[in-house]
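To the wet lab folks,

You asked to see what we're planning to order before we commit. Fair enough. Below is the target structure as tokens, and below that is the sequence we designed to fit it. If anything looks off to you, flag it before the synthesis order goes out.
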């Protein structure tokens, strides 16, 4: 952004009118107006007082806001690295929210100063949808940020393996399988059990336990090992709760979302699957 753009942006962030800023600097409101439209530029002697009134450094006053990934990537990495481990995912989520705002601002041409408490106070969902991709954001009890840039060939290749996708959703449609999933998500990874333990703890009928085990193996939330104990062949199962499946569950809750949207843009003109 140019000097003129920075003066206007910073003045508005300070909630100052052109007249108020002019009075502080001992110039006319017309002079400030001309600065902000690039008709003229502030006198050199006014630059330091101008920066002081806007509460920025001279570098910030002249800063060009056309930044690149190279400019900010290192700062983002350092920011997360220097954050307490317990807060790193929250910081990353906050960065995601700024990305959402940036995408939305490209539509509305609005500027809003960063507020560190905004994400904590935001409860509504949001999305951006256009011909270049889409985002899905939840700011409720299970806050997440996701962005899906559109591949050159469209989204169709994600749906090519229809039979495999159907197997996953069929497995999830079984009540006993869902009960077993919830049971395993309450355990740590590599929790060891036998089929009889799972059947008893989840109240799964004996004639259904093999089907449930097959579903769980398909969903890759556990793995099995055949061992011999005192000459007897036994099959042990080790839980491996899938974060990918958990992400699917969290995302699925957005399908039936009926709340308000804080940001939304729906201007897609092409089908999701290209011919």
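Sequence we intend to order:
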């Amino acid at each position: 952004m140019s000097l003129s753009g920075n003066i206007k942006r910073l003045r508005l962030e300070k909630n100052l009118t052109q007249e108020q800023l002019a009075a502080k600097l001992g110039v006319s409101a017309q002079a400030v107006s001309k600065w902000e439209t690039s008709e003229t530029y502030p006198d050199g002697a006014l630059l330091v007082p101008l920066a002081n009134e806007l509460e920025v450094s001279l570098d910030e006053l002249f800063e060009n806001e056309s930044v690149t990934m190279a400019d900010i990537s290192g700062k983002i990495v350092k920011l997360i690295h220097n954050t307490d481990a317990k807060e790193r995912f929250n910081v990353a989520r906050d960065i995601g929210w700024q990305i959402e705002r940036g995408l939305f601002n490209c539509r509305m041409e609005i500027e809003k100063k960063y507020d560190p408490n905004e994400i904590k106070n935001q409860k509504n969902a949001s999305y951006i949808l256009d011909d270049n991709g889409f985002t899905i954001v939840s700011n409720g009890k299970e806050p997440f940020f996701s962005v899906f840039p559109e591949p050159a060939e469209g989204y169709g290749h994600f749906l090519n393996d229809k039979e495999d996708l159907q197997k996953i959703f069929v497995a999830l449609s079984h009540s006993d399988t869902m009960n077993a999933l919830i049971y395993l998500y309450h355990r740590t990874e590599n929790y060891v059990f036998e089929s009889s333990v799972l059947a008893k703890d989840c109240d799964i009928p004996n004639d259904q336990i093999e089907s449930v085990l097959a579903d769980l193996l398909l969903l890759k939330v556990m793995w099995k090992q055949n061992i011999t104990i005192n000459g007897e062949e036994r099959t042990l199962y080790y839980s491996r709760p899938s974060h990918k499946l958990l992400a699917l569950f969290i995302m699925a809750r957005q399908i039936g979302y009926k709340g308000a949207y804080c940001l939304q843009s729906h201007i897609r003109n092409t089908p999701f699957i290209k011919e």
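Structural context that might help your review: The domain at 174-247 is CATH 1.10.10.10 (Arc Repressor Mutant, subunit A). The chain has three domains: 3-62, 69-155+257-266, 174-247.

Thanks,
Computational group
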